[in-house]
Amino acid sequence: MSDATLDEIIVVNLADAFRGDGEILCNPIGTVPMCAGRLARATFEPDLVYTDSISTLPANDFPVGVPDAPKVVESYVPYRSIFDIVWSGRRHVVMGASQMDRFGNQNFAAIGDYRQPKAQLLGMRGAPGNLINHATSYWIPNHSTRVFVERVDVVSGPGYDRVAELGEGAGRFHEIRRVVTKLAVLDFETPDHTMRLRSVHPGVSVDDVVENTGFELTVPDDVATSRLPTDEELHILRTVIDPTDARKAEFG
Amino acid sequence: MTEDEVIAELADGMTVGIGGWGSRRKPMSLVRAIVRSDLKDLTIVSYGGPDIGILCATGKARKVVYGFVSLDSIPLEPHFRIARQNGTVEASELDEGAFYLGLLAAAHRVPFYPTRAGLGSDMLTYNPDLRTVTSPYDDGEELVAIPASKLDVALVHMNRADAGGNGQFLGPDLYFDDLFAMAADKTFMSCEKIVPTENLLDEGTFHTLRIPRIFVNGVVEAPRGAHFTECPPDYGRDEVFQAEYAATAKDPDAWAAFRSRYLEASSHDAYLAEVDAR
Fold it and tell me: For chain B, does the N or the C end have fewer beta carbons within 10 angstroms?
């Protein structure tokens, strides 16, 4: 019986989003996503490169939350290079969202009318360019009907319906690989690219997910349980990737 | 030059580009000189941090063109949020990478650079400055035409410079300061220290000399000129001061006191004296 905790189960399920990516820039934003990306690189996706969030690519298993840890630099990527990599397509980003709809339209820009918002949030940031150029996944801890909504107030990162409207070919680099929340793993592997329940975390029921989602979710007849970390993954995560338990801060 | 001599070159209604990134290596002594001037109706073009927050909160900015506005360790710039939520500033928001293309287009004197960034997003819905363009080649693709961000003036802060305006960055990232300089009719550079040209390679290799003097019109020596933003390796961000700045967004009295004590200090030296007297 694994002694993995919810944060660790989430990390490995988010790490799985990078499976098969090969030699690209793994660019997760936030502590839990960074743990996931670095764990993927340390285990099943060794060709990935990742940033130190400043301007270099560490070649060693550089821990999160320990900025002074020894670093083997394998390349220099100031922000200008990051944008060039975005446009080259050789990147997979993990972002957050304050709202998301069933086609994966993401909003972290503003709540209310964009022109004079009720709440100015992060703004568009790099979401428009990320979504249309390369694979994107999301870590959205708060799985609720306030977040997963019928219609987002502002589209920062476009979802599948918006991209389909652009016409044939325009969205050929667009892919929303996975959405991971505190309840479940979701994807868009349906005929019309609407959101599907891929797995529920241990102890979570399908009904819990449906009740906390503000739109109609595709639910397969058999919903898997999110996989548990292997012993090797747990060991590497706890001792190498995140020795100070920085990932647990998002879990109260 | 002094900060006030630089700001005397500016005029109402100008478009002013500000280098740096978020709360990193911002020419804050020049920003404060704008605050204590009579300038108004400025358009500010920036990867925004407290420069945008301060120029919004003091009413100097009529319009802001930005890739984001953040204090880094405090993700949302609170004074900018208030300006957006009260509708007191006109916003022209660009995807972070697209913002770079606007500077590049201005630097190269072409009207736009095309990109996919923005297709399908509300960036195009809400930014009235943006149009699309169709590829003239066989692919016929429709792309976003990011317009040239032409600047009347650019303000940047470097670690070192010589008196002629050759600028040197010693930190991890130049950001886009070279493009700000090239996109502007006039560029003014503040720096931590002016050094003789023959000493420019004392602290960094020639790879760090990324802004040649042909793009620079004047240099200001401003030690700790980026405070409270970071300017490594000379100093890190003053997180305590930044938190104090951010907190003033919730309290008009605290904001008035902060503005009067720090932002309207009569010179950069007077500002540093107030900072050190805390």
Answer: C
